Amino acid sequence: MNLKLRRESAPATAEGSPSGLAPSIAGWLGVLGTMLPRRQAAAIREELESHLQERVRDLMVGGLAEAEATRRAIAELGEAAELASKYRALSIEPQRRLVMYGLVVAVAGAGLALGVAAVSGGGRQPILDSTKTAVPTGSDLRLSVQPGPHGSLELVVQPPGAGAARTELPIVQDLPIMAEAIKRGSMRVYEVQPAASELDALRAEVDFDRTPMADVLKFIGERAGMPVQVNWSRLADLGLDPKSPVTLKAKSAGMGVILRAINEAIASSSKDDGVDWRATNGVIEVATRSYFDRREVKLVIYELEGIIAARHDTYGEERVKVMEEVIQLIQGFVFPSGWQDNGGDLAKLTVVGDRMFVEAPARFQTQIRWMLDQLPAKMPQ
Amino acid sequence: MPSGELRSEDGELIILSVLADEPAYGYAIGKGVAARSGGEIRLTPGVLYPLLAKLERQGLITSSWETVRSERNEDEQGGRRRKWYRLSAKGRKRLSQRVQAHRDYLSMIAAFISPPSLRPRDAKEIAE
User: Fold this and answer.
1) Does the distance separating the beta carbons of A53 and B53 come in below 8 Å?
2) Do B50 and A86 touch (CB under 8 A)?
3) Domain boundaries along the sequence of chain A
4) Nearest-angstrom CA–CA distance, A378 and A365
5) Sign of dihedral through CA atoms A94, A100, A103, A105?
């Protein structure tokens, strides 16, 4: 499927705000708008914009300067992502709800079979699949019931083409039979979202000609059917803002290709950092690579006993020398500038006995694992 | 009552009660709740607005938009808009049920915590 970039209704920016809002309010509303259910986004934003204006005015009457009043009014509303998630929880279309109820009725009808399958484990084959039953869907959603852990059942809602990233979906809890089942732990409900790799594989024809970055990201969100949460304050570190121009013409571009185009445009000024993204919990999050790195730091312990033994047997090398070589190899090839020993602040490494403790972002650990796998190791006897 | 610990069902009861008096918009509802409770109950906007959306979706309240013209923009076309909420017939019925359920609950609890000289009937009157 080819899609052309739609240029209308760009997210509000400070300059683009029709009512001359403070930039921070316009920015906050812009971020919120990208995460709201599309149909209600405009109305919700307008209502909250009105709230913010009145709150700022009241706080100023109370003696606060405009900047502080604005900051406090926004803080009272909380994190845009959290607020948006509350609205999203309300925004399940009646059709989808109907579909789900239809499946629940079908589940009840097949109760005995389900019980037997659930108790016996039954593998991961769907017990009930809307594409293979007479369940009245009325939409292109695929619904299936699968055996879950501990004898529970899982109801999985899957849009066409979506992959394996599961998000717990509380939307059917107002149906008493489901609420009870969920409460008892005998039923779990998931919505399947496109996984990151699949999101990258989503292709579209694009023709960005100095298109504002906010429009580009909005386009990606529309294409993926997921809200996009942009951390503009982090992107500002790279000199990017919602109006930063993006130029890319391609017959088939995924998320990775589009972000590469953005990164190439800023490469001269930010060699070690760049725009990056994650798709989690049904939201595409866009920020800087360093931001995600710091969020995804983990401690991993690597056993080097086998490598030390192999080097000793083959070359007669002592343990200390082997360790030095391994450390040199890792810190010299795996994102060298990030290591504390090299003057960076993203990763550190300590050796105790035959074990190497590495505290570093996930992408570092992936490469370290790969490099260690390339070194011959003697299997323990 | 500790502020910020309001349960969703209590928030619903409070909002329906406020709107039973007169139509109001979100910001006014929040201020009204704080004023009526002497500042003890604060419906933060992050709770208030999604709750209003939920009540509207359930048909318990209805809404309409009103254009606000401030001194700054009265000469201009358009202006900021406010979303006003009103209690629907369904909402009024729900409020009545919730108030009765709440009073029954208070009465029941009062029967346990009242001085021995007070009968449950008396306690109910106190609760009311």
Assistant:
1) no
2) yes
3) 23-90, 94-193, 206-294, 296-373
4) 22
5) negative
- Tokens matching residue B40: 């003890």
CATH topology for A206-294 is Phage tail protein beta-alpha-beta fold (3.55.50)
Domain range enclosing B111:
8-68+80-127
In chain A, what residues touch B49 (CB-CB under 8 Å)? 44, 47-48, 51, 83
Kindly determine whether residue A47 and residue B49, on different chains, have CB atoms separated by under 8 Å.
yes
Interface of A with B (CB under 8 A): 18-19, 40, 43-44, 46-51, 53-55, 76-78, 82-83, 86-87, 90
Q: Do B27 and A55 touch (CB under 8 A)?
A: yes
Q: Is residue B37 part of a domain?
A: yes
**Residue matched to tokens 């307008």:** A46
Domain assignment present for B22: yes
CA A13 to CA A213: how far, in whole Å?
12
Q: Report residue A288 as tokens.
A: 């800087």
| Separation between Cα atoms, residue B21 and residue B87, nearest integer Å | 9
User: Cβ distance B127 to B110 under 8 Å?
Assistant: yes
Instruction: Give me the residue from A43, A54, A90 closest to B50, CB to CB.
Output: A90
> Does B53 sit within 8 Å of A44, measured CB to CB?
yes
Assigned domain for B73 exists = no
Place of tokens 């589009």: A258
Find the residue in B nearest to A21 (Cα). Answer: B80
What CATH number is given to the structural domain containing B37? 1.10.10.10
Query: Are B88 and B97 a contacting pair, CB within 8 Å?
Result: no
Q: Quick check: B53 and A76 CB within 8 A?
A: no
* Averaged pLDDT score across all residues of chain B: 80
B68 at interface of A, judged by CB pairs closer than 8 A? yes
Kindly state whether residue B52 falls inside one of the protein's structural domains. Answer: yes
What's the domain count of chain B?
Answer: 1
> pLDDT (tens digit, 0 to 9) for every residue of chain A, 381 residues total?
332 322 223 333 333 344 456 777 887 887 787 778 777 888 999 999 999 999 999 999 989 888 889 888 988 888 777 788 788 777 654 445 555 555 555 555 444 344 433 333 344 566 666 666 544 444 455 667 777 666 666 777 665 555 555 555 544 444 555 666 666 666 666 666 555 555 666 667 778 888 888 888 888 777 777 788 888 888 888 888 888 888 877 777 777 777 777 777 665 455 567 888 887 666 788 888 888 888 888 888 888 888 888 888 888 888 888 888 899 889 888 888 889 888 888 899 988 888 889 999 888 888 888 888 888 877 655
Q: Show residues of chain B in contact with A44, CB under 8 Å.
A: 49, 53
- CB nearest to B82's CB, from A50, A55, A86: A50
Class in CATH terms, A296-373: alpha beta
What sign has the CA pseudo-torsion A31, A267, A8, A277? negative
Angle between helices A80-90 and B45-57 (to 10 degrees): 10
ipTM of the complex model: 0.81
Chain B, residues 96-125, CB within 8 A of chain A, namely none
Which of A51, A55, A61 is best to mutate for the B interface (most B CBs within 10 A)? A51
